[in-house]
Amino acid sequence: MPTSIPKQELMAPGHTACHGCGATLAMRYVLKALGEKTVVSVPASCWAVIPGAMPFRTLDVPMVYTPFAATGASISGLREGLDIQGKTDYNVVGFAGDGGTADIGLQGLSGAMERGHNVFYIMYDNEGYMNTGVQRSGSTPYGARTTTTPVGKERDFKKENKKIVADMMIAQNVPYVATATVAYPEDLIKKIEHAKAVNGPKFIQILAPCPTGWYYPPEKTIEISRLAVQSRMFPLYEFVEGRFYLNKSFKPVDVSEYVKAQDRFKHLNEDEIENLRRYVEERWNQLLEWEKLYSSPIKA
Amino acid sequence: MTIMRQNEVIIRVAGAAGDGVQSAGEILIRTFARSGLYATSYNYYQDIIRGGESWYQVRASDVKVKNQGDGLDILIALNQDGVERHTNPDINEGGASPLGKDGIVIFDNSIKNYTKRDTNYCSMPLADIAAKYSKNTLLKNTVGLGAAIAATGIDFNIFADVIRDQFGKKGEIAELNVKAAKEGYDYYLANFKPLGKKFKFGKKKYTISGGMAVALGAVAGGLKMYVAYPMTPASSALHFLAQHAKKYGVFVKIPEDEISAINTTIGANYAGIRAMTGSSGGGFALMTEAVGLSGMTEVPLVIYEAQRTGPSTGLPTKTEQGDLNQVLGASQGDFPRIVFAPGDIEESFYLTREAMNIAEKYQTPVFIMSDLYLAEHYDTIDSFDLNFTIDHGLRAKDNEPDYKRYLITETGISPRAIPGQPGNMHNEDSDEHNEYGDVVSDAVTNPQDRIRMMQKRMRKLDTYIEEMKPTPTYRIQDADYVIIQWGSTKGAVEEAIDILRSKGIKIGAIEVKNVFPLNPDIGTLLKNRKKIFAVENNYSGQLSKYIAAQFLVKPELITKYDGEAFYPNALAEEIEVRIGKKNEVIRE
To answer: Which of A14, A182, B29, B370 registers the highest number of CB atoms within 10 A of its CB?
Structure first.
């Protein structure tokens, strides 16, 4: 079967990520979909380290680093700076982790999306601060163990729910919002292409499993990425110009299959897994409602 | 020239990131501590998740060791690069000594193609021994450690206990490790000679990192809340407190950014508990505005600032003392701030504890300035003196008639009322205010209030200077030459002084722990010297410039800004050259 994934590689070997890193796959697919006329802005995150250490450089597109809180601001300036020179055909991409997006960067993200710059904001979501030693982020799901929600004698695993930035972007009525994950590259690339067709800000949250911080064997990244969707822990959806589409074309599995594949959830007992199961169910029902709710664009 | 002492051993474990270098190093320092030796360590690593060269050095002796040390006795090389790099005198690892002719290198016998140099090669079947016990390739590190322990002459049983502790509940795995280590230990003794070290073992010691010492100092000083956003190298304190939050009764939270971290901390202090925040330079930059808020509203605040190599992201896993200008200049306007710079791990504990009292007593921001070297390396201690009284400072009584939150006093300190106390209604405003806390930011209506309030706040510094302890010194009596030192360079400076003194050079140091305000006694201490040196882990000599301006002296700068800490021999040599006792050594 021919694949819809472009052949062009804009990410060369030589990166310094961990084996089985989901975030590197995310970048690779995004660049395949966008092509070489792309500029990337990266804040402090795993991706600040991944592009390679001397003498290697893994990306074949220009990249600029920005302070942790500043991805939204950086891409706003980048876009307008290029446009002033007439370089409107370049794609401007902010590529930030969940810490840089859900936590410190949220204000800058919201501002950039509201001002309407023609930019892509890609949040690669590995559900924690993985570059600095696996600390919790706002995007870490309920139940996960991190170094700041440790499980030892005390069971201080994360008790709060995941802050879902894509949902917030829908609430803000951003022209294009989607969720994707690396187990479904065709879907991911299709979404980037849809986003490209929208002139304005677009936000895509890509679940990027992390063997180092989720504590699973590196070869399981794709499997876990797939389980996240099938267990409905990470539903795939698209929000285009006010319309919401939920992806239901998969065989559902129980949450426990997802949870048990990763040691970051190892300590959870049946009751706690049941909490997650209930959460997933309720959120799924909510998303089904959103399909009815968001059925036409609302604009002044 | 390095003189190896019989009662001292330096071991370096070298490999790639992800090879288990750090945990091997930590097992070593624990072993030395438990056998009753003093030890210290140095972690050389890179901002790379996997791969990249890293090493961990442990120095142990029966007398207190003050820094990572010059020289190298035992190298445990986990890959070929390790064998090659650390025996090569032409490679400069930020000043670390290569293995010399008396040293030994322990490595796996699968490593064959290396440049043969004048040292003792102990090729061993590390991987083969490990394979007998487990598929986990990291087990070969334990075999290597066993061999190194044999070379030092440390009791194997102590080492075995440390391994058992390290693997905790995983009893079976621990026993596998112990057996593998024993085989490494026996293999070494059957095939190679021990180093002939002779130690006088003392009492068992504790191992602790600088970040842990800051955390414990804060807890001992009544810490109830720690709010911080992760940033190397301040994170070691955060992780430690998160792990022990329940045990110490400390509320630990990681908010969305540093702006939130510092303002949550100020909120908690305003509410009347002792809260603290911490970060490194980049994160602290975001806290800047709130520092002045604490100064203006007179809400106590303790900030732990652990420096790393800047500017910007810099070298995120390397050390530097480059944030002093930032800390001294943080926030607009003049307001009193107090800055401590501990020189070692014990001072990290005591000064942080003291900072908790000082912040509440003077109702103003207090800083603990550490750096990556100090925060992340492990040291041994005998114990901490836990005798300490928490002083909440001047507090208002309930229902005070005509309560003035910002009462003008001679000391500058006003009685503090906290929310929930009956009566005493007031505002704590970031605008300029009068004694009641009412806003007078339109100074035209009352410039006198502004002037009096400014003077009142700044008077707190004069009051504090009066209670300051004398500036600590090191071998300064009769010294012709004096070094100005602050923070983590203390150990290297003291040892360099010992080296120079042994050559008849009369030299000493002043150790600036109170970085702001400076103790006026520094002026006297610097008087009538042939030359004043300033040793700083930064480019421009930030403290030195500021001391020069205040005391009208002209220190000669010795700086290091390659991301690594000072080494005593190199420092001593440099000073010898500067005072003309030695011809300049040509270096790259």
So the answer is: B370
